[in-house]
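Question thread 4412

I'm putting together a teaching handout and wanted feedback from people who do this every day. The idea is simple: show students a protein as raw sequence, then show them the structure tokens that encode its fold, then repeat with a second protein so they can compare. Below is the first pair exactly as I plan to print it.
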Amino acid sequence: MPHAAEWLVFLGATALFAFVPGPGMLYVLARSLRGGRAEGFQSGIGTALGVTVHVLAAAAGLSAVLVTSAAAFTVIKLVGAVHLIYLGIRALFSKSSDAVEPPRQARRSAVVQGVITEVLNPKTALVVPGVPAALRPPRSRSRAAGLRAARLVVVAMGLVADMTVALFAGPLGSRLAASRRWHVRQRVATGATMIGLVGFVALAERG
């Protein structure tokens, strides 16, 4: 297993990665403000599942293709950008009467869209495969155990960050839900944020 100092550096870097706002966290924020804490938690579960997809791909060696292939990385960026534009336009042009889905449908939608948003997040696609480079114990058996633990930490840290956003933003959204003016502003802010994130995705570069 890695030394304590290596773990401290890794945990600090992972926390920075998790808590710096990106498409996943801003998606959770938007859903929390729109649907309250419960919908925010569901969207956080979705983004955590999306990170898990990257972790499993890295463990299987599939992420190496994405990191080393300019074409594959460009495809991920373009599809991710299109998805964010879709979410943004949907938010901008949804009517107030259509903004509130049935609770079960809204939460299922929050999970599914959270998974898609994180799977297509180039920030996650680049960072997760880099976990092996951060922890390189000398013995192969302990290295494998260390990598499994490190990948679990990446998923857990991202989940904690997103759940923290939902925890604080959810009640605010619930309190303001009765205001028609708030619905309009929230819809415009959500749509503009999602579309604005396209720039973040487009500028992402391979390490």
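The second pair follows. I'd like the answer to focus on this one:
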Amino acid sequence: MNLRISFEIIATSFSKLYWNLIIKHQYTQGKNARIHTILSDIQLQHQLPSEIPYDSLSDLIKNQVHSEIQNAIINKYVLGALYKDTDGLIYGFNKRDKILQFNPSAYKFLLKFQEVFLG
């Protein structure tokens, strides 16, 4: 059982979720939130309409979104903050290799209760 996931996959999931929330549906965590700034700048740079869903973006733009989110958000805030908040019980990570490694017990727990977590 491979319990590793790349930072790129995490960034891709964040990209789709936050693009649709912030750009398409105009939800925000504050106009000065880093993720809001990143996505708004990309939207403006490419002159994209606000109603465009993530899945309609070109691969070039998706790659730009993933890269900027991974570098500015995932690497800097997300992985370390959750790791610290959970005392490293759920996963470990290696920034050099850009890999997150789940703890086998935590992974089994998350699988067992995924319907509760995902609604």
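Top answer:
Good format. For the second protein you could add a caption like this: The first strand starts at residue 4 and ends at 6. The mean pLDDT is 90.
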